[in-house]
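fold-stage: in
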Amino acid sequence: MRRPAVRNPYPERMAIPKLLTGGPFRFGFVATLGVLLALLLGLAISSLATALTLIFVALFVCLGLYPVVQWLEARKFSRTLAVLTVMAGFVLLMALLLWLIIPVVVEQLTELFTYLPKGFDQIETQDWFITVNESFGGALTPAVEWLQKTASDPNTWLAIGGGAFRVGVNILNGTFNVIFVAVLTLYFVAGLESIKASVYSLVPASKREGFISLSEEITKSVGSYLGGMVILAAMNAAFTFILLSICGVRYAGIMAALAFPITLIPLVGSVINLVLVTFVSLFTSPGTALIVGIVMLVYVQVEAYVLTPRIVGKAISIPGSLVLIGAMVGGTLLGLLGALIACPVTASILLIIKKVVVPRQNLV
């Protein structure tokens, strides 16, 4: 016998959803399917996390390079020639950096692993360490002995790297990821206009004009910001290398290579690099560390108040508190990459709120 349909006792109110009229078994079954589908989708996204991250990196690099294409087009370059020029320059720059940096970094890493046990021995003979150790009643001696033993044990470095085989696998994966990002960036640069046109065509015609205006503003702001930050990071890395080389600090190449990605982090990156290079300079002498620290502190001030306003300008204007919060959240989710892209993502969200959400609220 067919069960009669459940009637709504309150016809003037919203009708009861059809799902709720099929009984508890049907509702529970559909709800369970929804939960399972959500879990499978989350698992798929988790499995694709590395690939999605690389695609995201390539897109951000593309946005950083695209203002150069537009600048060349303003100089009477055809679009094809401008894109080809940027692509060729990007490939040459990547090849030049790898050719200059990798041999130096490999050589100095080898020297560093060899020097660390001897370096800890030399610390114990320096006057500043003897004075500080005596003031603490010899408390630093056991710590230095433990560091000497740990640094001289090859198993320590294998454990840090996850074993020799894992280190090799990580190097190969890292090399493949760099090549993948470089190639994908070139494709994005070449086809960015067609990609944007395809996305714009999916937006309803009534809202397309506002969507295009907002998207172009975000793209321009993010591109200008990323390009400026890369220039500032390169200048900071070059200054770090020159300063440490002049002061006779060993491993200047490694510190410069580390300074580039570190100083890309907004607000705190330059300060982290200052602390790091000052600490490494202690292995040379306290006087050298003091000089390096003072000079780097002056450079950080010049970078913050002179170079950043001129190079980055007002491409992205957000409160400093939100920059720190965004960097912390991004770093927690995606590590160093999340900290690097936190500022442009935060600025994009604020721009959407300002251009879309606030005007709608004012109409209510």
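fold-stage: in (second)
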Amino acid sequence: MAVSSPSSHLLILLLISCLDWPSTPASAFLLDRDHMTTSAPNEPHFTDCVSREQETFRCWWSPGTFQNLSSPGALRVFYLKKDSPTSEWKECPHYNYSNRECFFDVNHTSVWIAYCMQLRSQNATFFNEDDCFTVENIVRPDPPVSLNWTLLNLSPSGLSYDVMVNWEPPPSADVAAGWMRIEYKIEYRERNTTNWKSLAIQPHTQQAIYGLHIGKDYEVHIRCRMQAFNKFGEFSDSIFIHVNDILSGESMFPLTVVLVFGIVGILILILLIVISQQHRFVMILLPPIPAPKIKGIDPELLKVHLFLLCYSAWPFFYMNKIIDSSDILARLFVAFLSQIYCFCFLCRQEKKL
């Protein structure tokens, strides 16, 4: 059994004190805001550093539990710009003590160059190696602007619809000049619910949302980030999408017009075909009557002879008393009887032949 000595007790106490010693705070601005912990470090520390347009940036700090360092000027911000081996620590160019903020303007901001930050009081310096960054890594662009939406189409059932959401890039990003390359993340949800649905991240300034339900309100907002980086900016102001049931009935009007014009077009096409093939259709519907096959009779002479016989029978009906009547129906009836008489007469004559 090993015998403990005073030095071994001292070593154990040192190990325990090291385990209980609060770890040096990691800078919150190097982490995504969505993954920040709620427990604040005890000592003074930087809470965030953000650049909106990759030309300037701001850093904020907190005194932690050191209330004696909460007064304006109790803590000062120093930065080291690693642009040369002989770089020296310099003090913050512009303070805003009411917000505990240090602002770096265009003259003090450079991209692709590392910055390190530290806080100093009269008696101590608070520095963490994690408080070093390059400006492009802390860019969180301003939110997109001019959000709007247009209706794409309604489902045949009239129960759902699709929309196209459009927006403009943040003016501070100067996307048109190519200063920043932006990609967007659009989220939407049914109004007054907590479940946001995200669409795929993409670099275009419009995106379709499919399968929204008729009669329900939807809320949409967008945020963006620099391509190839992880940090998103703030969400834009929300827009609200709503389509009433009335629209489903109105949307059927174009479809009805298309169907009507389609049917009329088909009928016109059929009519043109009939007209172009008129002779053939006449031959099918009204085939020609074959000429008489009796030998020794001239067909043309027979037609003339029969016509003269029928015509000579007309005065018999014309002399009828009914002719004197002024009734139109009676006249038509007399004409019909005369035709019957002619037909029968011709038939008898044809049989005699």
